[in-house]
Amino acid sequence: MASPRVGETDIEKKIRDLQEVEERLVVFSVDILDYHSILIALNGCSALFCCLDSSDGYDDKVVDLEVRGAINVVEASAQTESLEKMVFTSSLTAAIWRENICSEKDVDERSWSDQAFCRKMKLWHALAKTLSEQAAWALAMDRTLNMVSINAGLVVGPGITQQSPRSTMSYLQGAAQMYENGVLAYVDVNFLVDVHIRAFEVQSTCGRYFCFDRIVNTEVEAIKLAQSLSPLISLPPRYECQGSEVYAERLRTSKLNKLVDSTAFIGFSSSPPASFGCYVFLEATVRSCLSAPLLVGSPPPPPWRV
C-alpha cells in the first residue's frame, strides 16, 4: 500500500497492530516523494496496491505532488524484480470531465477527462487523478510493468464520511454537473476492496476498470446519497422531492462485470479463501488512505439543485 500522507491515524495503528498477530506482515512508513524509501519498502513484495490521495484536499500544487508520487511508485515497482502486478487506484473523475459530455452515449474505460477543461473549472481532484494515472500508465508501458488501474466512484460505507471528509468533498466538486450528466456514481468500500483483490489475482486482468455500485440519476437517489453523507451534506428540514426527472446513465461497466462474474465475491464468502486476510488488510488500508482531519468550512453544493 502506498500513501502520500504523514502521521498515523487510528486505522493505521490498527494495521500496525496486525503485525503482532501476523508474522508475514511488515508495515513501512513511506514518503511517495522519496523514491528510495519506496524501493526499500517494495523489496520482496509480489503485489502493490497503490492508493494516492491528499488528506488536505486538492489545489494546483497538490496535483503536481500526486503526479510525482505516481511516477516514483511506478518506477520503484518496475525496478522490483519480485513484483508480479501493481494495482493502481484511480478515480472516475479521471474519465468524466470534458466539454459536452452530455452528448456522449457511452463513457467507459477508453474515456479521459480533458486537462484544459479541468484547469479551467478548477477541478483539481479530477486533474490530479487524470494526470497521475496517465503518467503511471505511460511509465508502466515504457517499463513493461504489469499494471491494472481501478477507477472508483465516490467511496461510501460505514464511517467513510467521518474518516475522509476532505476526500469525499474533493470528489464531489462539480457534483451537480455530474448528476445532470449521468456520471455521478458511488461504490461501497467493501466491493471496491474485493475488486482490487480480483484485479491482482486474476491473471487476465489488464488496463482500466470502472468500479461503482450505482449511478445517481434521480432526485430520490440523490437524496439517499446526501443522507448517507451526513453531516457533510445536509438537506433542508422536511425537504421533499421537487421533480421526477431521470437523467440518462452514461457510465458503462461491461469490463468490470466480466471480472466480477468470473470470480467469487471475496468479501461475503461463507468460507473465506486464503486471500481473505488480504481483503481485511486492504479494507483497512483503503480507509486509511481516505482518512483525514475533520473538514473546516462550508461544504460545496449538494449533487442536485433545490
Automatic annotation (TrEMBL):
Start and end residues of each 3-beta hydroxysteroid dehydrogenase/isomerase domain: 11-174
A GO BP annotation: steroid biosynthetic process
UniProt xrefs under Pfam families: 3Beta_HSD
Top-level division of the source organism's lineage: Eukaryota
Annotated organism of origin: Morella rubra (Chinese bayberry)
Entry's transmembrane regions: none
Listed InterPro entries: 3Beta_OHSteriod_DH/Estase, NAD(P)-bd_dom_sf, NAD(P)_dehydrat-like
Keywords, alphabetical: NADP, Oxidoreductase
Annotated protein name in UniProt: Tetraketide alpha-pyrone reductase 1
